[in-house]
Amino acid sequence: MKINGYTPNTDIFKNVTGNTSSLDLYDDNNGANNVNGVSDFGNLLKNKLDEVNNDQVKADNSIQSFISGDKTDIHNVMLDSEQAKMSLELAVQMRNKLVEAYQELNRTQL
């Protein structure tokens, strides 16, 4: 039985919209990874952790304004809180995966 080979089309990643200004891991000329990909990963990680922190601060401010009696809608408070919760859970899962990958590399025998 012959299995047909599959070659993924990586051109779709060049048209990604959103906050990817700090992501320049792909060289448009030849499709090779840049040499400074490690520093880009560090910047990407820092930016995403800053976004998680901003979500937490936004949720805290929303809760405080609701408690103080400002005209804040409870739905917006709950949405901000859930956004902060989900982003924190994602950050924790990513941290766990990175630690797991690091431990796996340490177990690798040369």
Automatic annotation (TrEMBL):
Chloroplast as a keyword of this entry, yes or no, is no
Gene Ontology molecular function, alphabetical: cytoskeletal motor activity; structural molecule activity
- Which InterPro entries does this UniProt record tie to the protein? FliE (IPR001624)
The record's principal subcellular location, in a coarse class, is other
Query: Which sequence ranges are marked TM in the entry?
Result: none
Q: Which NCBIfam families match?
A: fliE (TIGR00205)
Q: What is this protein called?
A: Flagellar hook-basal body complex protein FliE
Could you tell me which species this protein originates from?
A: Clostridium tyrobutyricum DIVETGP
